[in-house]
Write a structure and sequence with these properties.
Distance between the termini: 55 Å
Strand content: under 5%
CATH architecture of the largest domain: Orthogonal Bundle
Helix content: 55-70%
Strand order of the largest sheet: 1-2
Order of helices and strands: HHHHHHHHEEHHHHHHH
Low-confidence stretches: 299-314
CATH topology of the largest domain: hpI Integrase, Chain A
Number of domains: 3
Radius of gyration: 24 Å
CATH class of the largest domain: Mainly Alpha
Largest sheet: 2 strands, antiparallel
CATH superfamily of the largest domain: Intergrase catalytic core
Structural class: mainly alpha
Length: about 325
């Protein structure tokens, strides 16, 4: 069996550091290992075996190769980010003197607005009495996703001890092991109480969504259950867990325009991530401006502005 090259050993040590010291999630670890493994293949083909031998030209060649293979820009961005993080770590530990990926520009990807549900359609589905009775667990999952803006992984890992006594708020640990507290709406509380009454235990360490053997229900089972509930409730369109999170963010921003508050509720590290949800129409933005800006003394003629040829960036 061949010994790993110094570059491969450094990448393996970095992955272990992420696991032990940074306590990265299994998903993050798997993605990072895959990203670095692809780069190591490119380095090996060019006879480069040490961190010190990696230069900006190799990194650029790696990025160009991945694009030629048809990889999405967002995936190349992630791979380049993993490479930058590796060499930042190697520079800190003295295994490299420079970060060859630091100045390599990632390809730009088209900024797509996330798919969401129409507010009235989703509200009608969540209030559908027959679907609630047929699928109380799936209905509770839908209510929680929409009420709290949870990610699927956060929903899947929920246990009763994360809620306060009145089920009015839930403590969630999201990406990067960051914890946030999110309010739970009244409809979601009712669905949780129905679910709790039907389960054998509500112990603090018991999962909210129980699967086989008393273990947390799998992510796939949760996603399939949501589709089953949506079909019974008459909710049209593609139904997947993250779409409820999109609806949570979009509908909150439409009503409040408070980007910072929504950022906190979503658990986004950067405000730029939240800004993808700001596809509010110009009329609504103008109303917010008129109500909030100290110099907005007179109402704006929104229709007139648009007729005069003003262009609104989207």
């Amino acid at each position: 069996m061949n010994e790993p090259t110094p570059l491969a050993a450094a990448a393996a040590d970095y992955s272990e550091w992420l696991r032990v010291t940074k306590r990265a999630s299994p998903h993050t670890l798997d993605a990072t290992r895959r990203d670095l493994a692809r780069f190591l293949e490119t380095a090996a083909e060019r006879g480069i075996s040490t961190p010190q031998a990696v230069d900006v030209h190799l990194v650029r060649a790696f990025v160009a190769r991945r694009r030629r293979l048809g990889l999405a820009a967002s995936s190349v961005q992630r791979e380049l980010s993993s490479l930058r993080s590796l060499f930042r770590h190697l520079c800190r530990t003295g295994q490299a003197s420079t970060n060859p990926a630091a100045d390599v520009r990632a390809p730009k990807s088209a900024r797509k607005l996330p798919g969401t549900f129409e507010k009235d359609a989703l509200g009608s589905a969540l209030d559908h009495a027959e679907a609630q009775q047929l699928h109380p667990r799936d209905h509770a999952a839908a209510e929680l996703l929409y009420s709290c803006g949870l990610r699927l992984a956060e929903l899947q890992g929920l246990h009763w001890g994360q809620f306060d006594a009145g089920l009015t708020e839930v403590r969630v640990t999201g990406k990067g092991s960051k914890t946030r507290i999110v309010p739970v709406g009244s409809k979601a509380r009712e669905a949780l109480q129905t679910l709790l009454a039907a389960q054998p235990t509500g112990a603090v360490d018991a999962p909210v969504f129980v699967g086989r053997g008393g273990r947390p229900r799998s992510r796939r089972a949760l996603a399939v259950g949501l589709k089953r509930w949506a079909s019974a409730a008459g909710l049209a369109g593609r139904v997947h867990p993250h779409r409820f999170r999109h609806a949570f963010a979009t509908h909150l921003l439409e009503e409040s325009a408070d980007l910072r508050a929504v950022q906190e509720l979503l658990g986004h590290a950067n405000l730029s991530t939240t800004q993808i949800y700001t596809h509010l129409d110009f009329e609504r933005l103008a109303k917010v401006y008129d109500a909030a800006h100290p110099r907005a003394d007179e109402p704006k003629n929104v229709a007139g502005q648009q007729d005069s040829g003003a262009k609104i960036a989207t």
